[in-house]
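Model it.
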Amino acid sequence: PQSANDDLLYLKEEQKLIKNYVQNNIPVLGICLGSQLIAKTFGAKVYRGPKKEIGFYHDLMISNNSKLFRGFKNPFSVFHWHGDTFDLPVGATRLALSENYSNQAFQYKSAIGLQFHLEVNEQMVNLWLDKTEEKLQQIPYIDPLKIRSDIPKNISIVKSNMEIFYNNFKSVFGL
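Modeled.
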């Protein structure tokens, strides 16, 4: 997995784009690594979190009455695949948090950062598991077989949350 702290040219280019878009009030949606890049671009620290979050989680709490999460259950369900986290940039608004991570979603001007994945589908989750199953089995609290078996009962919830969020995003930013 990549980190916003990796010294890679294309990550630096992404940060330039993020900064330019936000300076010009153009909406930016950063998912997982993208949220970390938004945070880092605007001066926040990105670092290893207390524990990896990989799989379906049902504990995200909306922490602000943002229109972006209108129509969501509270708590709501997402798919996670990350080990890093971040502090919020000065002036950012926290939108969602969980037991393990206080910064799961935030807004900084026209940029929205989501630490979680709403965009996944069954094929993506299976592909990610196929590519990393051996490594994941070495992490005592992550069970790749359970994640795989959880797909049928959870993917439709995540897809529904994605549709609600994207419609809210378009509405909030007039897209």
